Amino acid sequence: DIVDYEKQDNGPEGMEPDGIIESNWNQITDSFDEMNLREALLRGIYAYGFEKPSAIQQRAIIPCIKGYDVIAQAQSGTGKTATFAISILQQIDVELKATQALVLAPTRELAQQIQKVVLALGDYMGASCYAWIQRCDHTLYF
Predict the structure, then answer these.
(1) Would the pTM count as exceeding 0.90?
(2) Which residues form the domain of 67?
């Protein structure tokens, strides 16, 4: 595992925003250019409006691309969606017309937001992304 979270008394392990984070990954990449990303992906990143990677992006994109198991936690609006979208887009083969990544989201709105980010970042690559929304009408009895 890349990140181990110290056990907190007031919530599940790893879910305390102000908790202590211990990591065995200490590389911080200060720019998207230093990440050795595909040129078409870089164009999409800059066209999307990113200039410099956020803290979560500086720390999580490279280990994701390298295939490590990553657990990352950050506040809203810090670029988590773009972090995993960039990591996925760097690894896929756009010539292969098959499912190569699956992102699960708990709500329709989040699934659609993720789709928009992936399509925008992958625009110059010709990447495709579909949001499949599963309606759940099941009643569970215990």
Answers:
(1) no
(2) 3-125
Q: Is residue 44 part of a domain?
A: yes
The answer to whether the CB of 13 falls within 8 A of the CB of 5 is yes
Mean pLDDT by 10 residues, the chain (142 residues): 42 52 80 98 97 94 94 90 98 96 94 97 97 79 69
CB 41 within 8 A of CB 89: yes
Distance CA 57, CA 17 (A): 17
Residue 56 lies in a domain: yes
Query: In this structure, are residues 124 and 43 in contact, taking their beta carbons and an 8 Å threshold?
Result: yes
Three-class secondary structure of residue 119 per DSSP: helix
> Hey, what are 42's tokens?
């870089």
Quote the number of domains for the chain. 1
Cα–Cα distance between 35 and 29 in angstroms, integer?
A: 7
| 3-state SS, residue 44 | helix
